[in-house]
Amino acid sequence: MTEPATNRSFVRLSGVGHRFDPNPAIPPAVTGIDLDIRRHEFVAVVGPSGCGKSTLLRMIAGLLTPSEGEVSVFGKQVSGPRDDVGIVFQKPTLLPWLTVRKNVLFPLKHKFGRYGRDDEKRADELLAMAGLESILLMDEPFSALDAMTREQIGFDLLKIWQENPKTVLFITHSIAEAVLLADRVLVMSKRPGTVLEMVDVDLPRPRTTHTISDPRFGQLTERLRKHIYEPEA
Question: Which residues pair with residue 12 across a beta bridge?
Answer without folding.
Answer: 36, 72
